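All the exercises in this workshop are built on plain-text protein records. Sequence and backbone structure share a record, each on its own labelled line. The question running through the whole workshop is how a given chain folds. The record below serves as our worked example for the rest of this section.
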Amino acid sequence: MESGKKTHDLPTSVQLDLQTGVFEPCAMHVTRKVSDLSMMFYDTESVEKLVKKGDPVVYDIRHQNFITRNSDMALGVTVVQPGKVGDEYHMTKGHFHEREDRPEIYFCVQGEGYLLMETNNGDFKVEFWRPGTITHIPGNYAHRVVNTGDKPLYFFASFNVSAGHLYKPVIENGFSKIVVEREGETVIIANPRRK
């Protein structure tokens, strides 16, 4: 660990509300609205309309770091609200890790949808998610969660703080595929944003 970092070498607990995905204590809470993800959704006209109509929340993230002298584990809980921007389902921003030797584990607690994963080389993987699905995500895969259900989807994330987050490649290119509703069905299609 870097010198000067605060350490907590005793066992630590947080209390989770299993219905809502909210836990306390929580070191960081971030709310992302449609406007915060405007560069992610392909239908810019629908983005503008939703922002003008109140800019709905797409998801919330809560983090708690557990830094000790010998480790840097963290807990994240994300709650993705049901909804769509145009025909594209609500989703997390998605990111790569700065360090490819740092994987992440996701555990779907409530709701249903998809976990999209993709390498810089274009190797795309998708996992259908429902309560109880646990996915190990290698450090070289960007990852994004999409809520295709009619209630909030929430999941745990366990990762090393030192993994870091790289958003720029996802902002610039998006994932090669997106999840949309077409004729009442959920389908995965090529991303129109991709050049």
Q: What stands out?
A: Residues 44-52 form the longest helix (9 residues). The radius of gyration is 17 Å.
